[in-house]
Amino acid sequence: MDDFRLLKKLCAKSELGETIGVPVPISGGLLHKMYAVKTDNGKYAIKKLNPQIMKRPDAMNNYINSEKISYLVSKKVPAAPASIINGDFIQKIDNHFFMVFDWVEGKNLKPALNNCSHSEKIGSLLAEIHKTDFSELHIKEDLENNEQFIDWQYYVKKGQKINAEWVVLLFEIVDKLYEWTSLANQANRLLSANLVISHRDLDPKNVLWNKDNPVLIDWESAGYVNPMSDLMETALYWSEDETGNTDRKRFFAFINGYRKRYGETQVDWPTVLENGFLGKLGWLECNLKRSLWMEGSEEERKLGTTQVIGTIKEMRKYAEKITKLVDWLNNQE
């Protein structure tokens, strides 16, 4: 396998040691490939960055900034930044790009095993990230790319031409997509005056637990975000039960853990929740492009198709629960 040759070459060039055995593919998220690699110097998690994404003009700078964020905040919270090798976070081998991480012993928590204690702990860590001063990194706020202006009918027509698996689902909610886009853009304009730097994807798959000790991994989405939007999105991640519903006790355990560290805040919860559509809309379009083979490989096309179907279902469910969540939050105040 070509990746194995590249990994061996990377280990030699980066002085990680002589590889032992065959690198083992592990979960690398939904965009990249990840391998467990043993050498005579130790064990590493090595991420091969998606070649299609790395062609984007802003990709390299975004990944470098995200690792700078991870490295700085690791002094305050248990984070796992990429190793700095020869002065760089990102290594280039034969026109492919890699990030090397020291191996972290731990496991992701499944929804059935996640409890209020876990949720409260992550809520507190999120508050610590939000309170961190990142000014020395001089990362510019890029607000122009936050709003979504997507021609959803275009994707419906493209899907109809190839009889895509998701085309009926997309057609059923196409009017709602325009409505959610308008609400999200309006909410984003209201909330963009108050921004912090955060992880921005701190769901259970990006936290490894060794007993009750968490390590926050996969910082590639790190950047500016409204703190209350980040709080809400992350609280929902950590309060989802095995059936996909929101567990009220875990939801408030997370929020209370955050508030104990961050302090009380005045929040317009409906606006915050409407802003929650923004990332989902962008993720849906990203996967529509993958599914339609507008970018990526055959493997990515299949993954994109799966994600389109899952994201549509998730967005419908999210829209249905907004009223309930606002009621919960306002009655707790």
TrEMBL record:
<feature type="domain" description="Aminoglycoside phosphotransferase">
    <location>
        <begin position="25"/>
        <end position="260"/>
    </location>
</feature>
<protein>
    <submittedName>
        <fullName>Aminoglycoside phosphotransferase family protein</fullName>
    </submittedName>
</protein>
<dbReference type="GO" id="GO:0016740">
    <property type="term" value="F:transferase activity"/>
</dbReference>
<keyword id="KW-0808">Transferase</keyword>
<dbReference type="InterPro" id="IPR011009">
    <property type="entry name" value="Kinase-like_dom_sf"/>
</dbReference>
<dbReference type="InterPro" id="IPR002575">
    <property type="entry name" value="Aminoglycoside_PTrfase"/>
</dbReference>
<dbReference type="Pfam" id="PF01636">
    <property type="entry name" value="APH"/>
</dbReference>
<dbReference type="InterPro" id="IPR051678">
    <property type="entry name" value="AGP_Transferase"/>
</dbReference>
